[in-house]
Amino acid sequence: MTRLNLADSLSPLPRRPSSIPPSQIPVMMRARFLAPAFALCGPLLALTLAMPAAAQQRPYLIWLDAGKIDVAKVMGLPPAQNSPEHRAEFEKVLAISQARTPEREKQAIADQYQTLNAFLNGIDHTYVENTHRETRLLMREAQIELAILLKSVNRLTSRIRPFQMWNKVRVKPCPGGRPEGTSFPSAHAATAALYATLLSDAVPELADKFEARVKSYGESRLVCGFHYPTDLEAGDKIGRVVAKALLAEKAFKVRYDETKPEMRLAFGLK
Question: Where are the alpha helices (DSSP H) in 50-83?
């Protein structure tokens, strides 16, 4: 098999030419000017009709001080597009995605969910969301803290995902939903590292299994062509930093210690 030369082949997928009829342009322009007004009404309506959901998706930190965590410094920056490092990463993702089996693809699709249930898939446990409610809520709160911090750096990078690169070669993504936005860092890898660090503190007996799951959970993102290895590395770093910062925060630690017995019971331990 000949080796693909990617030196001049990597570029974003081309945009399709516009097929909008001229008669529709004025209508679309009016809609564009009205959009800000509707955008202002949206949050008010959401707060009025769906307060519990709005609270769950809070846009502010509760436990952590953003000024004490330099997210950009922790993660660093990805390789520049079309640099030798980027081309090497693309080639690695291409090889992994091409070699995936139907079974591995099925697992990778299941791993697209960023929930504690999805992370624990493959690990022996008796965790049930409705039964172990405090564990679910605590992990969800920690994940939201992480997501808010990640938003602060998402605008710093606009890395194109492997499956979006197109020219002589192409990574075929897994069927189903396809992620949008920057590829760097991987929120899935960050979430997995966060879960593993928090769970390992409460259930050290299973620390090795949690770490193995972090690896397979992240590899699923390569299998589907959604991320590069450096995306996973950056996500892993920030996920662990946030988890350790939470455990060092007095208010969070009090609630964590109160929930620890339930977490251990969820894995059949006392």
Answer: 51-56, 71-75
Residue 43, φ and ψ in degrees, nearest 5: -60, -40
Are 189 and 117 members of one domain?
Answer: yes
**Higher-scoring residue by pLDDT: 76, 44:** 76
Question: What is the residue-averaged pLDDT of the chain?
Answer: 81
24-38, 50-64, 97-111, 186-200: lowest mean pLDDT where? 24-38
Tell me how far apart the alpha carbons of residues 88 and 63 are, in angstroms, rounded to a whole number: 39
> Measuring CA to CA, which residue among 167, 159, 173 is closest to residue 230?
159
Largest CA distance in the chain: 70
Q: Are residues 42 and 67 in the same domain?
A: no
Three-class secondary structure assignment of 183-222: CCCCHHHHHHHHHHHHHHHHCHHHHHHHHHHHHHHHHHHH
Encoding tokens for residue 161?
Answer: 């995902």
Cis omega before residue 17 (within 30°)? no
d(CA 121, CA 135): 16
Mean pLDDT of 107-118: 92
Name the domain count of the chain. 2
Q: What's residue 11's pLDDT?
A: 61
If 0-12 CB within 10 Å is exposed, 13-18 middle and 19+ buried, where does residue 54 land?
Answer: middle
Same domain, 82 and 134: yes
User: Which of 60-69, 71-80, 234-243 has the largest mean confidence?
Assistant: 234-243
CA-CA distances (angstroms) from residue 222 to 18, 33, 85, 149? 32, 40, 16, 23
CA distance 81 to 167: 14
